[in-house]
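To whoever is covering the structure queue this week,

Two jobs came back overnight. Logging them here so there's a record in the thread.

Job A:
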Amino acid sequence: MIRLTLIEHGGTPHEVSASAGSSLMQAAVDNAVPGIDADCGGGCACGPCHIKVPAEWRERVGAPNDIESMILDQTPERDDHSRLACQITLEPQLDGLVVHIPEFQM
């Protein structure tokens, strides 16, 4: 199991576990983490699963691909730490990952 911490905009942490191979979005939805929606079911078509990856995790998480980047371009809060949770596949090197949920989703 991969351990994750998702931190709401107001600072409330949610510690969850998920199986390797699942998405960060699915882990959040399965654990009812507020602020992460799965409107498109993980198809990288909407954006309300926007999260911020701290600098110390960015290399392990990786950069967004072109399609994800196009979706993120529509997000006013996008910055260099932005990713879509539906596009992050949980792997052993992400055990302990901490991400932040922005105040607003698209």
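Job B:
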Amino acid sequence: MTLPQAGPASAAAPARTPVLEAKRLVKTFGRVVGLDGVSLQLYPGEVLAVIGDNGAGKSTLIKCLTGAYIPDEGQLLLDGEEVHFKRPQDARAAGIETVYQNLAVSPALDVASNLFLGRERRKPGLLGSLFRALDTSGMRKEARDHLERLGVSTLQDVTVAVENLSGGQRQAVAVARAAAFGSKVVVLDEPTAALGVRESNQVLELIERLREQQVPVILISHNMPHVFQVADRIHVQRLGKRAATITPQSHSMTDAVAIMTGAAVA
């Protein structure tokens, strides 16, 4: 079965400099090939979905983009300039924030403390420099501003401990943290995997708000309806390679699954 030609041209990739670009990435683990010459482009204000079966190389690709893995070959470019990430902190410093499936939130801390986790603000003057006192009120005010800017209406009180929140609210905290500090790119790894219908819709609305604010998003997901609801383009991984780059307008969900599983060639 052969589907319509898919790729950068047919996927209507904008004629602009990508915010993030990967060129011919290769990553091997002994004799196991994780990535085999994979290229990817992410443009300003775009939601790029990455889909693929288990073992297709999605996680390896994302880890190479975010500094968790160092590619054996290939290039990474941020705003057209080549970058080399040796650890996740390097990617974060460059403005690439990742929200993993386990969310990496601290249940015992409140919402504001989780938003500033690892980036705590200290009080000005001697209290902050000498006594290292945290600017709790300032962080809480900024946290409210971030949540309001994203339109998160389910979190009214930033002083509530995260352990008292629902799954969707915890995901909102993690996404808001990424959006607050991810000046270049936000990467979301299966953000709706463990959520119900209502909470999943809240996360999808958050993704759409990020796009409205021109924050580019990479969305890794197995949920085809969610992918086709919010994605501008869809990068399909298969057996460590990029099988196609399609759009919800050019291909159906059935087409995407067929390309992903090898039942069809684009």
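Note for Job B: The chain has nine helices and ten strands.

Please reply-all if you pick these up so we don't duplicate work.
Q.
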